[in-house]
Design a protein that fits this description.
By secondary structure, the protein is of the alpha+beta class. It has nine helices and 18 strands. It has helices spanning about 5-20, 25-35, 55-65, 70-75, 150-160, 190-205, 280-285, 310-320, 350-365; strands at about 40-45, 55, 80-85, 85, 95, 100-105, 120-125, 130-135, 175, 185-190, 210-215, 225, 230-235, 235-240, 255-260, 265-270, 325-335, 340-345. The relative contact order is 0.11.
Protein backbone atom coordinates (compact mmCIF):
# COMPACT_ATOMS: atom_id res chain seq x y z
CA UNK A 1 0.00 0.00 0.00
CA UNK A 2 1.62 3.22 -1.14
CA UNK A 3 0.51 5.35 1.81
CA UNK A 4 1.96 2.94 4.33
CA UNK A 5 5.48 2.61 2.96
CA UNK A 6 7.07 5.18 5.24
CA UNK A 7 5.54 3.69 8.39
CA UNK A 8 6.29 0.12 7.35
CA UNK A 9 9.91 0.92 6.56
CA UNK A 10 10.31 2.90 9.78
CA UNK A 11 8.86 0.10 11.90
CA UNK A 12 10.91 -2.67 10.31
CA UNK A 13 14.21 -1.05 9.41
CA UNK A 14 15.98 -1.85 12.70
CA UNK A 15 15.47 -5.56 12.14
CA UNK A 16 16.50 -5.23 8.50
CA UNK A 17 19.70 -3.30 9.13
CA UNK A 18 20.82 -5.54 11.99
CA UNK A 19 21.19 -8.39 9.50
CA UNK A 20 23.03 -6.37 6.85
CA UNK A 21 26.09 -4.18 6.47
CA UNK A 22 25.54 -0.61 7.60
CA UNK A 23 27.44 0.75 4.62
CA UNK A 24 27.12 -1.05 1.32
CA UNK A 25 29.75 0.28 -1.06
CA UNK A 26 29.61 -1.99 -4.06
CA UNK A 27 27.01 -3.65 -6.24
CA UNK A 28 28.19 -7.14 -5.32
CA UNK A 29 27.07 -6.63 -1.72
CA UNK A 30 23.75 -5.25 -2.88
CA UNK A 31 23.29 -8.16 -5.27
CA UNK A 32 23.86 -10.74 -2.56
CA UNK A 33 21.26 -9.16 -0.28
CA UNK A 34 18.72 -8.75 -3.06
CA UNK A 35 18.87 -12.44 -3.91
CA UNK A 36 17.22 -13.21 -0.58
CA UNK A 37 14.14 -15.28 -1.58
CA UNK A 38 12.18 -13.73 1.31
CA UNK A 39 12.03 -10.26 -0.25
CA UNK A 40 8.58 -9.02 -1.25
CA UNK A 41 7.68 -6.56 -3.98
CA UNK A 42 5.93 -3.43 -2.67
CA UNK A 43 5.97 -1.14 -5.73
CA UNK A 44 6.52 -1.44 -9.47
CA UNK A 45 6.72 1.44 -11.95
CA UNK A 46 7.15 1.41 -15.73
CA UNK A 47 9.00 4.62 -16.59
CA UNK A 48 7.31 6.78 -19.24
CA UNK A 49 8.78 7.06 -22.73
CA UNK A 50 9.26 10.80 -22.24
CA UNK A 51 10.88 10.60 -18.81
CA UNK A 52 14.02 12.70 -18.49
CA UNK A 53 17.05 11.09 -16.87
CA UNK A 54 16.81 11.42 -13.09
CA UNK A 55 18.21 9.67 -10.01
CA UNK A 56 16.18 6.65 -8.94
CA UNK A 57 15.68 7.98 -5.39
CA UNK A 58 14.29 11.23 -6.83
CA UNK A 59 12.05 9.29 -9.24
CA UNK A 60 10.61 7.18 -6.42
CA UNK A 61 10.20 10.23 -4.18
CA UNK A 62 8.02 11.79 -6.90
CA UNK A 63 5.90 8.65 -7.26
CA UNK A 64 5.33 7.35 -3.72
CA UNK A 65 3.25 9.23 -1.17
CA UNK A 66 4.39 9.67 2.45
CA UNK A 67 7.99 8.53 2.11
CA UNK A 68 11.09 10.66 2.54
CA UNK A 69 13.92 10.69 0.07
CA UNK A 70 16.29 9.72 2.87
CA UNK A 71 14.34 6.53 3.55
CA UNK A 72 14.39 5.67 -0.14
CA UNK A 73 18.17 6.11 -0.17
CA UNK A 74 18.48 3.80 2.83
CA UNK A 75 16.24 1.26 1.10
CA UNK A 76 18.62 1.35 -1.88
CA UNK A 77 21.60 0.95 0.44
CA UNK A 78 19.99 -2.18 1.86
CA UNK A 79 19.50 -3.58 -1.63
CA UNK A 80 15.76 -3.07 -1.83
CA UNK A 81 15.56 -0.91 -4.97
CA UNK A 82 15.80 -2.60 -8.36
CA UNK A 83 15.78 -1.40 -11.94
CA UNK A 84 15.02 -4.00 -14.59
CA UNK A 85 15.27 -6.67 -11.86
CA UNK A 86 18.79 -5.64 -10.88
CA UNK A 87 19.60 -3.89 -7.57
CA UNK A 88 20.88 -0.34 -7.92
CA UNK A 89 22.26 2.42 -5.75
CA UNK A 90 20.22 5.56 -5.13
CA UNK A 91 22.43 7.44 -7.59
CA UNK A 92 21.32 5.25 -10.51
CA UNK A 93 19.89 7.37 -13.34
CA UNK A 94 16.42 6.21 -14.37
CA UNK A 95 15.85 6.08 -18.13
CA UNK A 96 12.70 5.82 -20.28
CA UNK A 97 11.01 2.38 -20.18
CA UNK A 98 13.00 1.22 -17.16
CA UNK A 99 11.04 -0.95 -14.73
CA UNK A 100 11.64 0.28 -11.18
CA UNK A 101 10.67 -1.90 -8.21
CA UNK A 102 10.93 -1.53 -4.44
CA UNK A 103 11.34 -4.73 -2.41
CA UNK A 104 11.13 -5.19 1.34
CA UNK A 105 11.94 -8.04 3.72
CA UNK A 106 8.31 -8.33 4.85
CA UNK A 107 5.06 -8.72 2.93
CA UNK A 108 3.29 -5.58 1.78
CA UNK A 109 0.04 -5.11 3.64
CA UNK A 110 -2.76 -6.00 1.27
CA UNK A 111 -6.40 -5.48 2.05
CA UNK A 112 -8.43 -8.27 0.53
CA UNK A 113 -11.24 -6.93 -1.61
CA UNK A 114 -14.53 -8.04 -0.07
CA UNK A 115 -17.60 -8.04 -2.32
CA UNK A 116 -20.17 -5.48 -1.19
CA UNK A 117 -23.70 -5.05 -2.49
CA UNK A 118 -23.34 -1.48 -3.74
CA UNK A 119 -25.36 -0.25 -6.73
CA UNK A 120 -23.36 0.42 -9.90
CA UNK A 121 -24.49 2.54 -12.85
CA UNK A 122 -23.40 0.23 -15.69
CA UNK A 123 -23.31 1.97 -19.06
CA UNK A 124 -22.06 -1.03 -21.03
CA UNK A 125 -20.98 -4.61 -20.34
CA UNK A 126 -19.90 -7.66 -22.29
CA UNK A 127 -17.60 -10.64 -21.63
CA UNK A 128 -14.46 -8.52 -21.88
CA UNK A 129 -15.16 -5.02 -20.54
CA UNK A 130 -17.49 -2.91 -18.45
CA UNK A 131 -18.05 0.83 -18.57
CA UNK A 132 -19.50 2.36 -15.41
CA UNK A 133 -20.62 5.84 -14.43
CA UNK A 134 -19.07 6.54 -11.01
CA UNK A 135 -20.88 8.94 -8.70
CA UNK A 136 -19.04 11.70 -6.88
CA UNK A 137 -18.02 10.68 -3.38
CA UNK A 138 -17.18 7.07 -4.22
CA UNK A 139 -13.56 6.01 -3.85
CA UNK A 140 -12.42 3.94 -6.81
CA UNK A 141 -10.00 1.54 -5.11
CA UNK A 142 -9.43 0.43 -1.50
CA UNK A 143 -6.59 2.30 0.14
CA UNK A 144 -5.48 4.14 3.24
CA UNK A 145 -8.61 5.05 5.20
CA UNK A 146 -10.95 3.61 2.57
CA UNK A 147 -10.98 -0.17 2.74
CA UNK A 148 -14.63 -0.69 1.90
CA UNK A 149 -17.46 1.02 0.06
CA UNK A 150 -15.30 1.49 -3.03
CA UNK A 151 -16.07 0.87 -6.68
CA UNK A 152 -13.78 -2.16 -6.59
CA UNK A 153 -15.83 -3.66 -3.74
CA UNK A 154 -18.99 -3.04 -5.75
CA UNK A 155 -17.48 -4.68 -8.85
CA UNK A 156 -16.46 -7.70 -6.79
CA UNK A 157 -20.11 -8.17 -5.80
CA UNK A 158 -21.44 -7.61 -9.30
CA UNK A 159 -19.01 -10.15 -10.77
CA UNK A 160 -18.97 -12.62 -7.86
CA UNK A 161 -20.54 -15.34 -10.04
CA UNK A 162 -18.03 -14.83 -12.83
CA UNK A 163 -15.46 -17.60 -12.30
CA UNK A 164 -12.95 -15.80 -14.51
CA UNK A 165 -12.97 -12.60 -12.46
CA UNK A 166 -11.02 -12.34 -9.21
CA UNK A 167 -11.31 -8.92 -7.60
CA UNK A 168 -7.97 -9.50 -5.84
CA UNK A 169 -6.14 -10.29 -9.08
CA UNK A 170 -4.30 -7.18 -10.38
CA UNK A 171 -4.44 -8.59 -13.92
CA UNK A 172 -8.15 -7.73 -14.16
CA UNK A 173 -10.27 -4.82 -12.98
CA UNK A 174 -9.76 -1.09 -13.16
CA UNK A 175 -7.69 0.16 -16.07
CA UNK A 176 -7.63 3.81 -14.96
CA UNK A 177 -8.97 5.92 -12.11
CA UNK A 178 -10.69 9.21 -11.36
CA UNK A 179 -10.68 11.10 -8.08
CA UNK A 180 -13.16 10.34 -5.31
CA UNK A 181 -15.09 13.59 -5.80
CA UNK A 182 -14.99 13.49 -9.60
CA UNK A 183 -17.95 11.82 -11.26
CA UNK A 184 -18.05 10.04 -14.59
CA UNK A 185 -16.95 7.19 -16.81
CA UNK A 186 -14.46 4.41 -16.12
CA UNK A 187 -13.63 1.24 -18.06
CA UNK A 188 -13.04 -2.07 -16.29
CA UNK A 189 -11.28 -5.08 -17.82
CA UNK A 190 -12.89 -8.45 -17.08
CA UNK A 191 -10.03 -10.53 -18.49
CA UNK A 192 -6.22 -10.25 -18.30
CA UNK A 193 -6.03 -9.90 -22.08
CA UNK A 194 -8.44 -6.97 -22.00
CA UNK A 195 -6.53 -5.22 -19.23
CA UNK A 196 -3.23 -5.58 -21.08
CA UNK A 197 -4.76 -4.27 -24.30
CA UNK A 198 -6.56 -1.34 -22.67
CA UNK A 199 -3.54 -0.52 -20.53
CA UNK A 200 -1.46 -0.13 -23.68
CA UNK A 201 -4.10 2.15 -25.19
CA UNK A 202 -3.89 4.43 -22.16
CA UNK A 203 -0.09 4.23 -22.15
CA UNK A 204 0.06 5.11 -25.86
CA UNK A 205 -2.48 7.94 -25.36
CA UNK A 206 -4.92 6.62 -27.96
CA UNK A 207 -7.97 6.67 -25.68
CA UNK A 208 -10.37 9.60 -25.83
CA UNK A 209 -11.35 11.30 -22.59
CA UNK A 210 -13.43 14.45 -22.30
CA UNK A 211 -14.34 16.21 -19.06
CA UNK A 212 -16.73 19.03 -18.20
CA UNK A 213 -15.59 21.48 -15.51
CA UNK A 214 -16.76 24.72 -13.97
CA UNK A 215 -13.82 26.94 -13.06
CA UNK A 216 -13.37 30.24 -11.26
CA UNK A 217 -12.88 33.32 -13.43
CA UNK A 218 -13.64 34.24 -17.01
CA UNK A 219 -11.35 32.58 -19.55
CA UNK A 220 -10.77 35.07 -22.36
CA UNK A 221 -9.59 32.63 -25.03
CA UNK A 222 -12.21 30.38 -26.63
CA UNK A 223 -9.82 27.45 -26.54
CA UNK A 224 -6.27 26.61 -25.61
CA UNK A 225 -3.71 24.01 -24.57
CA UNK A 226 -1.98 23.71 -21.22
CA UNK A 227 1.38 21.96 -21.09
CA UNK A 228 3.43 21.50 -17.97
CA UNK A 229 5.12 18.66 -16.15
CA UNK A 230 3.18 17.52 -13.09
CA UNK A 231 4.74 16.18 -9.90
CA UNK A 232 4.00 16.18 -6.19
CA UNK A 233 4.21 19.59 -4.61
CA UNK A 234 7.47 19.57 -2.62
CA UNK A 235 5.84 21.74 0.06
CA UNK A 236 2.71 19.58 0.39
CA UNK A 237 2.92 15.98 -0.77
CA UNK A 238 -0.87 15.65 -0.84
CA UNK A 239 -0.99 18.15 -3.72
CA UNK A 240 0.23 17.96 -7.27
CA UNK A 241 1.74 20.97 -9.04
CA UNK A 242 3.15 22.11 -12.38
CA UNK A 243 6.94 22.10 -12.19
CA UNK A 244 8.99 25.02 -13.49
CA UNK A 245 11.96 22.68 -13.95
CA UNK A 246 11.29 20.64 -17.14
CA UNK A 247 13.38 17.76 -15.79
CA UNK A 248 10.98 17.16 -12.90
CA UNK A 249 7.63 15.42 -13.06
CA UNK A 250 5.60 13.82 -15.82
CA UNK A 251 4.79 15.47 -19.13
CA UNK A 252 1.13 16.51 -19.17
CA UNK A 253 -1.10 18.09 -21.83
CA UNK A 254 -4.67 19.33 -21.42
CA UNK A 255 -6.73 20.88 -24.23
CA UNK A 256 -9.66 23.06 -23.20
CA UNK A 257 -12.57 24.79 -24.93
CA UNK A 258 -14.91 27.37 -23.42
CA UNK A 259 -18.53 26.27 -23.46
CA UNK A 260 -20.12 29.14 -21.56
CA UNK A 261 -19.06 32.22 -19.58
CA UNK A 262 -21.23 32.76 -16.54
CA UNK A 263 -20.56 35.90 -14.54
CA UNK A 264 -17.50 35.02 -12.49
CA UNK A 265 -17.09 31.41 -13.60
CA UNK A 266 -16.52 29.59 -16.89
CA UNK A 267 -17.87 26.25 -18.08
CA UNK A 268 -15.16 24.42 -20.00
CA UNK A 269 -14.63 21.17 -21.85
CA UNK A 270 -11.25 19.54 -21.17
CA UNK A 271 -9.71 16.86 -23.35
CA UNK A 272 -6.85 14.87 -21.86
CA UNK A 273 -3.88 14.04 -24.02
CA UNK A 274 -2.16 12.53 -20.99
CA UNK A 275 -3.62 11.24 -17.74
CA UNK A 276 -1.70 12.46 -14.70
CA UNK A 277 -2.89 12.59 -11.11
CA UNK A 278 -5.21 15.61 -10.64
CA UNK A 279 -4.20 16.78 -14.14
CA UNK A 280 -7.20 18.99 -14.96
CA UNK A 281 -7.37 20.36 -11.42
CA UNK A 282 -3.67 21.24 -11.43
CA UNK A 283 -3.50 22.57 -15.00
CA UNK A 284 -6.52 24.83 -14.56
CA UNK A 285 -5.11 26.18 -11.32
CA UNK A 286 -1.82 26.76 -13.13
CA UNK A 287 -3.48 29.16 -15.59
CA UNK A 288 -5.38 30.92 -12.81
CA UNK A 289 -8.73 29.15 -13.05
CA UNK A 290 -9.17 26.80 -10.09
CA UNK A 291 -12.05 24.34 -10.32
CA UNK A 292 -15.16 25.58 -8.53
CA UNK A 293 -15.36 24.19 -4.98
CA UNK A 294 -12.12 22.21 -5.31
CA UNK A 295 -11.19 22.31 -1.64
CA UNK A 296 -7.77 20.73 -2.07
CA UNK A 297 -6.63 23.43 -4.52
CA UNK A 298 -8.43 26.41 -3.00
CA UNK A 299 -11.57 26.49 -5.12
CA UNK A 300 -13.81 26.34 -2.05
CA UNK A 301 -13.06 30.01 -1.40
CA UNK A 302 -14.76 32.91 -3.20
CA UNK A 303 -12.02 33.70 -5.70
CA UNK A 304 -13.90 36.05 -8.05
CA UNK A 305 -16.79 38.46 -7.76
CA UNK A 306 -18.03 41.28 -5.57
CA UNK A 307 -17.78 41.99 -1.84
CA UNK A 308 -21.53 42.26 -1.36
CA UNK A 309 -23.00 40.01 1.31
CA UNK A 310 -25.79 38.91 -1.00
CA UNK A 311 -23.24 37.68 -3.57
CA UNK A 312 -21.30 35.81 -0.88
CA UNK A 313 -24.49 34.10 0.22
CA UNK A 314 -25.23 33.17 -3.38
CA UNK A 315 -21.80 31.54 -3.79
CA UNK A 316 -22.13 29.69 -0.50
CA UNK A 317 -25.46 28.36 -1.74
CA UNK A 318 -23.65 27.19 -4.87
CA UNK A 319 -21.09 25.38 -2.71
CA UNK A 320 -23.96 23.66 -0.90
CA UNK A 321 -25.56 22.58 -4.17
CA UNK A 322 -22.32 21.03 -5.46
CA UNK A 323 -20.22 20.14 -2.38
CA UNK A 324 -17.21 18.90 -4.38
CA UNK A 325 -15.02 19.96 -7.28
CA UNK A 326 -17.22 20.63 -10.30
CA UNK A 327 -15.62 18.04 -12.58
CA UNK A 328 -17.28 15.26 -14.57
CA UNK A 329 -15.67 12.63 -16.84
CA UNK A 330 -18.31 12.87 -19.55
CA UNK A 331 -16.88 11.01 -22.56
CA UNK A 332 -14.71 7.90 -22.84
CA UNK A 333 -13.53 6.29 -26.06
CA UNK A 334 -11.31 3.29 -26.76
CA UNK A 335 -10.87 0.37 -29.13
CA UNK A 336 -12.58 -2.77 -27.89
CA UNK A 337 -9.78 -5.16 -26.86
CA UNK A 338 -11.45 -8.23 -28.39
CA UNK A 339 -13.40 -6.98 -31.41
CA UNK A 340 -11.20 -4.06 -32.47
CA UNK A 341 -14.30 -1.89 -32.75
CA UNK A 342 -14.19 1.80 -31.81
CA UNK A 343 -16.26 2.33 -28.68
CA UNK A 344 -17.50 5.70 -27.42
CA UNK A 345 -19.59 6.45 -24.34
CA UNK A 346 -21.13 9.60 -22.90
CA UNK A 347 -22.77 10.24 -19.54
CA UNK A 348 -25.11 13.05 -18.66
CA UNK A 349 -23.99 15.70 -16.20
CA UNK A 350 -25.01 14.72 -12.66
CA UNK A 351 -27.71 16.72 -10.91
CA UNK A 352 -25.38 18.65 -8.63
CA UNK A 353 -23.34 20.09 -11.50
CA UNK A 354 -26.46 20.70 -13.60
CA UNK A 355 -28.10 22.64 -10.75
CA UNK A 356 -24.87 24.56 -10.15
CA UNK A 357 -24.64 25.63 -13.79
CA UNK A 358 -28.30 26.66 -13.86
CA UNK A 359 -27.86 28.72 -10.71
CA UNK A 360 -24.98 30.63 -12.29
CA UNK A 361 -27.00 31.08 -15.49
CA UNK A 362 -29.80 32.63 -13.48
CA UNK A 363 -27.34 34.88 -11.69
CA UNK A 364 -25.77 36.00 -14.95
CA UNK A 365 -29.11 36.77 -16.59
CA UNK A 366 -30.60 38.58 -13.61
CA UNK A 367 -27.56 40.31 -12.08
CA UNK A 368 -29.67 41.06 -9.03
CA UNK A 369 -27.11 39.82 -6.55
Amino acid sequence: MIVGFDDEFNNNRNNIVSDTKEDIDDEDDIESISEDPQLYEHFRFLVDKGQTIVRVDKYLFDHIVHVSRNRLQKAAECGYVRVNDKPVKSSYKVKPLDTVTVLMAYPRYENEVVPECIPIDIIYEDDDVMVVNKPAGMVVHPGHGNYNGTLVNALAWHLKDNSNYDANDPHVGLVHRIDKDTSGLLVIAKTPESKTNLGLQFFNKTTKRKYIALVWGIIDEDEGTIEGNIARNPKNRMLMAVMSDPTIGKHAVTHYRVLERLGYVTLVECVLETGRTHQIRVHMKHIGHVLFNDERYGGHEILKGTQFGKYKQFVNNCFDICPRQALHAQTLGFVHPATGKEMSFTSELPDDITQLINKWRNYTSNREI
